[in-house]
Write a structure and sequence with these properties.
This protein is of the alpha/beta class. It has 5 helices and 7 strands, in the order αβαβαββαβαββ. The longest helix is centred in the N-terminal third of the chain and has 17 residues.
Length: 204
């Protein structure tokens, strides 16, 4: 997973990123019946933007990231909010053991396209969910590589049908997907483009 986020952590929570997290959280709430009995796990949490949008509807939340800088900001927000049911952990599931506690909800926001081995991370998510648990993936729709400036060795978004097929092969059911947001940004050459973000939900 790309790890050069420490330097960006202090200024990460821009109005656009907050709006994006709110839009994704709104659709998650529409797709999954959230309850205080559910244990949530956010992978690639950054500063915890998405988890803080959902924390009132969930029980304990574990936020995981491999960036100490991002997690330091997340800890500041946890302390400021007095959110005793939220914790964070520095974790790279491609290198480290997965938490043993089963979760009822796992969610990611623009994280999957940074992970080389998509099949492996989806297998890990499946193993971490309790029966009947939900996986929610928000990520870029397939794009031509314009989204990331400079060198980038991750995925250029995802074909939603292909990702759905991967999930179904792992045993996930009730797979649904829809566009939930569009990121407007400047690309090489100075022009601006919109990059759709989808939310894919499924059940173990």
């Amino acid at each position: 997973m790309t790890t050069n986020f420490d330097a960006k952590a202090k200024t990460w929570d821009t109005p656009e990123k907050i709006e994006r997290a709110q839009a994704i959280a709104h659709l998650i709430r529409g797709k999954v019946r959230l309850t205080r009995d559910m244990r949530g796990f956010e992978y690639g949490c950054g500063t915890g933007l998405l988890s803080f949008c959902l924390h009132d509807q969930l029980g304990h939340i574990t936020m995981a990231d491999n960036s100490p800088g991002m997690l330091a900001v997340a800890e500041e927000k946890i302390q400021a909010a007095g959110a005793t049911h939220m914790t964070h952990v520095q974790l790279d599931l491609m290198e480290d053991a997965a938490p043993e506690t089963p979760f009822q909800l796992i969610y990611t926001m623009l994280t999957l396209h940074h992970i080389d081995d998509t099949d492996r991370i989806l297998e890990i998510f499946h193993s971490m969910l309790s029966p009947g648990g939900y996986l929610c993936i928000a990520d870029l729709d397939k794009e031509d590589g314009s989204f990331h400036s400079g060198a980038f060795d991750g995925h250029h978004g995802f074909d939603q049908q292909q990702l759905q097929a991967k999930l179904e092969c792992l045993g996930f059911s009730d797979v649904e997907s829809e566009i939930c947001y569009s990121i407007d940004k400047e690309v090489a050459g100075g022009s601006r483009r919109s990059f759709p973000v989808f939310l894919m939900t499924c059940k173990k």
